[in-house]
C-alpha cells in the first residue's frame, strides 16, 4: 500500500503525518510526503530551504518507526492540490492524507481549498484531518 501525505508544516499537516504513521503500521504501507510550491525563483530560496528542512523533519518521524518514507519537493508551477492529485495518479497511490484548516466561505472563495480540490479530483480515497 502507498500513502501520500501533503505536508506544509502547519499543525493540521503534522496531524496528517501522525495519522499516516498509524495507517502505515496498520497496513504495512510506504509513505510519500510531498511539499508543493508553485514557483522556485531566486526570490524564494529561503522558502525552498525551509520546505526542505520541513521534509527532512517529516521523514525523521517515519524513520523513528522504521516506516519506509520518501520525500518530494515539487516545484512544477501547479497548485498544491494539482501536484498532489497528479503525483498520486502517476505513482499509483492508494490513499491521500491531508490536513485541513477551518476558513470562512469567503476565505475559501478567494484563496481556494487544496483539500477540497484533492477530495474532488483524486482517483483514490482521501482522508482529511484537522
Task: Show the helix and strand layout.
Elements: E1 2-6, H1 11-27, E2 30-37, H2 45-63, E3 69-75, H3 80-90, E4 95-99, H4 105-111, H5 114-121, E5 126-129
Overview of this protein structure:
Helix content is 48%, strand content 22%. It is α/β, with parallel strands linked by helices. The protein has a single domain (2-129), classed as Rossmann fold (3-Layer(aba) Sandwich), CATH 3.40.50.620. It has a 5-stranded parallel sheet with strand order 3-2-1-4-5, sandwiched between helices. Helix 2 links the parallel strand 2 (30-37) and strand 3. Helix 3 packs parallel to helix 5. The longest helix has 19 residues, at 45-63. The protein starts with a strand and ends with a strand. The mean pLDDT is 90.
Main features:
Rossmann fold, 48% helix, 22% strand, globular
